[in-house]
Amino acid sequence: MKVRNRAASPELPAGVKKMTDSQEEVEGAMTPLQLYERLNAQGEQVRCLKTAKAEKAEIDVAVQLLLKLKTDYKHLTGQDYKAGCPPPENVVNQDNGAATDGIDEEDNVDPWNVSTSNAKGVDYDKLIVRFGSSKIETELVDRIEKVTGQKPHRFLRRGIFFSHRDMHQVLDAYEKNKSFYLYTGRGPSSEAMHVGHLIPFIFTKWLQDVFDIPLVIQLTDDEKYLWKDLAIEECHRFAVENAKDIIACGFDVNKTFIFSDFDYMGSSPEFYRNVVKIQKHVTYNQVKGIFGFKDSDCIGKISFPAIQAAPSFSNSFPQIFGGRKDVQCLIPCAIDQDPYFRMTRDVAPRIGYPKPALLHSSFFPALQGAQTKMSASDANSSIFLTDTPKQIKNKINKHAFSGGKDTIEEHRKFGGNPDVDVSFMYLTFFLDDDEQLEKIKQDYSSGALLTGELKKILIETLQPMIAQHQERRKQVTEETVKQFMTPRPLNFKL
Ligand code: TRP
User: Fold this and answer.
1) To test ligand 1's pocket by mutation, which of 199, 216, 220 has the most ligand atoms within 8 angstroms of CB?
2) Closest to 236 in 3D by CA, of 261, 255, 212, 268
3) Which of 9, 2, 6, 61 is nearest to 286 (CA)?
4) Which residues neighbour 206 within 8 Å (Cβ) at sequence distance 6 or greater?
5) Which of 43, 287, 443, 482 is found 20 to 30 A from 210 (Cα to Cα)?
6) For residues 304-308, average pLDDT
7) How many whole angstroms from 262 Cα to the centroid of ligand 1?
8) 488 φ, ψ (degrees, to nearest 5)
9) Residues with CB under 6 A from ligand 1
10) Which of 184, 228, 245, 361 to mutate to test the pocket of ligand 1 (most atoms within 8 A of CB)?
11) Which residues share a beta bridge with 165?
12) Residue 149 alpha carbon to ligand 1 centre in Å
C-alpha cells in the first residue's frame, strides 16, 4: 500500500491505545520525505488545536504523537527533524528496523487507485488498522437490527460494509429520537455505470427506508472535469445521465436531493461559505499528506476536497435543514473515499460542526479477479447497467476469474476455491438467500458444483436484476430528474 493512504490525517481513532497501535503501523513503511511531511502536518495540527483552544487532553495526545513521529524520523534518517528542512534524498538509516513489512506493499488504496497482488482482494482488516476506523462487528449489525426492527441488509450480514466511524454514536442519538441524514455521491466520469457503482446506492436506499431519513447525493462533475480530459459540458451531462441510474435504485423523491456541483455551488451561498470555511482550515501540507498531491497538480485538485467535505454539514442545505448546523450526517461510501472524510472529520470541530459518521464498503471486484475493482474504462472488466442478457452471459463465461480446477476430474476430486472465484464473490453481493449461498459455497468447495454451473447461477441472478434496472431507468423522465435535482424542502421529522 502506498504510504499516503495510511498517513497524514490527524483524524485518529478514539482510544489512545488503539491510536498508538495504528500509528505504529502508520509510520512503518514511510520514506523519509513522507515522514517529514507527516511531521509537518502533525505540527500544524498541534498549532491549530492550540489556536482553537482545544481541550488539554486532546492537545496532549497530538503533542505525544508529534514527539513519537520525531523519534521515528530520527530513527529512520539518523537526523533530527527540522521544520523547513526536508530530508535529502536517499537518507535512509540503513540499520533501522522500521522498514516495510513486505505484505503492506501489496495493497494500494486511494480515491483514484485500488490494487493488490492478493487474489482474495485487499486485506480489509489491515486497512481498518491503517485508516484508524472500526470494524463492523456482529454486535453493531445486531444493534442496527434492534434499532430499526428490520433484518440487516445482506451487505451488513456478509461484511461487504465492513468498517465504520461513530456508528454507535449515531444509533445512541437515534434511540433518543435524535435523527440524522445520509450523504453519498458519485463522480460522473462517463455515461456508463456498472454494477459495482450500484453497491453504495443499493445500501443507501436501504438505510433511507429503514431509518426514514433525508438523503443528499453529490454528483462531482467538477471533480471529473479537474481529473479527466473532459469538457465541463460533458461532465455535467454525465451527472444528469448518472442521476437517472441512481434514481432507478428507488430513492424516495420526497426525501432525496441529488445535485451537480456545477449547478448547486453557484446557487447556494450557504454551500459555498462552508467550502471556503473548510479551505481556510486545511493546509496544503495536510492535503498533500492525505491525497499525495504533487507540486505539478492544478490548484483545482488541491482545493477540491473541501467541496466533497461540505455536504457533510447540514447547513450546506438550508432548504432542507432550515439553517440548522447540528444535524448529524452519516456517509455510506466505498473505503477508497475515506481520505476525504478523515479530512472532513478533522476539520469539523474546528469550524463548529459535528463530525460525519461513516459506513465503509469493500470494493466490487473486476471480472478478472479481486486484485482490482471493476472499472468503467475497461469494458471487459465490467458488467454495465446497459448490457444485454447475452452480453452478461458472454462476459461472465469468458472473463469471470474462476477458482475452479483445470479439468472436471480434478475439480470433482479437489473442489474449487470460492475465496478467489469472482462469480462466487458476485453472488455474495447479489444473491439474497443466505442458505442458498452457503449451499453453493459448500458444493463448489467440495467439487459437487462445477465452474460452468456456478457461472450459470450468477448469470441467472444478474440478467433479471439488470433487466429490471433498465426497466426502472426507462421510467425516469427528464421531469423526474429535475424534481430530484431541484433544491427544495424534504419531507421528514428530525
Ligand atoms: N469522489 C467520489 C467519486 O469519485 C464522489 C463522491 C462525492 C462521493 N461525494 C461523495 C462518494 C460522498 C461517496 C460519498 O466517486
Assistant:
1) 220
2) 261
3) 9
4) 153, 155
5) 482
6) 98
7) 15
8) -165, 165
9) 183-187, 218, 220, 223, 308, 331, 333, 337
10) 184
11) 358
12) 29
Q: What are the angstrom distances between the C-alpha of 292 and each of 37, 112, 403?
A: 10, 11, 36
Cell numbers describing residue 347: 476539520
Integer Cα distance of 304 and 121 in angstroms: 29
Q: How far is the CA of 183 from the centre of ligand 1 (A)?
A: 9
pLDDT tens, residue by residue, 390-442: 999 999 999 999 999 999 999 999 999 999 999 999 999 999 999 999 999 99
What is the pTM (predicted TM-score) of this model?
0.81
Instruction: For residue 189, give the ligand 1 atom closest to its CA.
Output: 4
